[in-house]
Amino acid sequence: MRDSNATVTKAAPPPGAAAFHLSINNPVVRAVLAQLGVALVVALVAWYLVGNTMDNLARLSIASGFGFLDREAGFQIGETLVEFGPQDNYATAFLVGILNTLKVSGVGILLATVLGVILGVARLSSNWLVARIAAFYVETVRNIPLLLQLFLWYGLLTEGLPGPRQALSPLPGVFLSNRGLKLPAPADDPIWAWVAAFFGLGVILTLIVAAWNAKRQAATGQRLSMLPIGLGLIIGLPLLVLLASGGGAIDMPVLQGFNFRGGMTLSPEFAALLFGLVIYTAAFIGEIVRSGILAVPKGQTEAATALGLTRGQLLRLVVLPQALRVIIPPTTSQYLNLTKNSSLAVAIGYPDFVSIANTTINQTGQAVEGVLAIMAAYLVISLSLSFLMNWYNSRVALVER
After folding, report:
1. What are phi and psi of 250, to 5 degrees?
2. What is the annotated localization of this protein (predicted)?
3. 168-171, strands of its sheet edge to edge
4. CB within 8 A of 79, min separation 6: which ones?
5. Running DSSP on this structure, what letter comes out for residue 164?
6. How much is the pTM?
């Protein structure tokens, strides 16, 4: 028989489960209110700035919006990757500027990486002279402002080289003067499109073979040498196409009057910007590589040496693959710095995106829209580069089990 005096007790809440109370004393409620307050302040500041800007534009009778992009630009750009003339619109001019920025940034990242790895390895060299020269380079270049280095390179390339009539010609068809470096270029011949297509095909096939080779090594322990295979596919296929067609037409530079005609030009502005960015960024990458190599446990190198690996094999097969896990994250920051530092091109006359946007602002008066376009362009480029580097970092990161 059930006891009528028995009391019913509530079950205790599970460990770690706290009751939620809608009170200002609750830290969760206070945190939410604080975030809402900050968001409200930011929204009010943004509303004030936008409203003040629109009022000032209306008072000065300056039209707002991006409708000016469809208007004729009316200015010439000296260095372009696509066809552009004064009759084209501002949108096309912006495209030219973005492509010029991507060109110098892409080439600069590649060259700075190669030079940075060499510097990082050289700083750890057992040769006293090599290590001290690398250390002097790093400590000197890192402590001189990049803008001053750009002025130095630009002055050397424009004032330290002879004019076109006295141009240096180290190779047939190659001329170096204060107007830039003139090189032979592929002429308007359809065969070059086929060569480019087979070059891309060779790159794709090389990646496929490399992936298959990695799986084969994991399964059988046997690995094919990818260097001759890659060279054969990437260089051999386009070369076979070129030989089968009897060769393609070449546009050779020729001196006419006071300048060269034909070929392609590496302008002093582009060269000065590229040299400055590469030399400056490589000093930082070199220190990152050095720290990454030092982070590899000494027992790894001792074990590799005991197996009979040479110093080159030790560095390429044992040290660098493990050091990448330390090297990649800070190197990503240096890639982003190089891309953003390319905006200093405006100081030496290279037509990058900032330079072209400034010209557009001066002609149209659309300062707000021009600055917003610059910010958006560098934001997209930086986020895209960060995404690619983070993806690669996840591929080489050490996965814990």
Report:
1. -115, 130
2. Cell inner membrane; Cell membrane
3. 168-171, 174-177, 180-183, 264-266
4. 100, 265, 267, 269, 270, 350, 351
5. G
6. 0.78
Helix (H, G, I), strand (E, B) or coil at 379: helix
Of the candidates 81, 76, 101, the one whose C-alpha atom is nearest the C-alpha of residue 353 is 101
Could you please state the CATH topology (level 3) that the domain comprising 68-162+267-401 is classified under.
Answer: MetI-like fold (1.10.3720)
Domain spans of the chain? 68-162+267-401
**pLDDT (tens digit per residue) in 320-369:** 888 888 889 999 999 999 999 999 999 998 999 999 999 998 888 888 88
**From residue 33, how far is each of 30, 36, 149 by CA, in Å?**
5, 5, 50
- pLDDT at residue 1, rounded to an integer: 46
State percent of the chain over pLDDT 70.
93
Q: Say how far apart CA 154 and CA 159 lie, in whole Å.
A: 8
Contacts 24+ apart (CB under 8 A), 243-250: 245/191, 245/194, 247/191, 248/186, 248/187, 248/189, 248/191, 248/192, 248/195, 249/186, 249/187, 249/188, 249/189, 250/184, 250/185, 250/186, 250/187
Alpha carbon distance, N-terminus to C-terminus of the chain: 58
Q: Give residue-wise pLDDT tens across range 13-48.
A: 555 445 556 777 788 888 888 899 999 999 999 898
Greater model confidence, 18 or 308: 308
Cα 349 from Cα 344, distance rounded (Å) = 9
Alpha-carbon distance of 135 to 232, in angstroms, equals 38
Strand 264-266 versus strand 259-261 pairing type: unpaired
Look at residues 344, 342, 295 and name the one whose alpha carbon lies nearest to residue 319.
295
CA 118 to CA 320: how far, in whole Å? 12
Task: Look at residue 396 in the predicted model and tell me its pLDDT.
Answer: 73
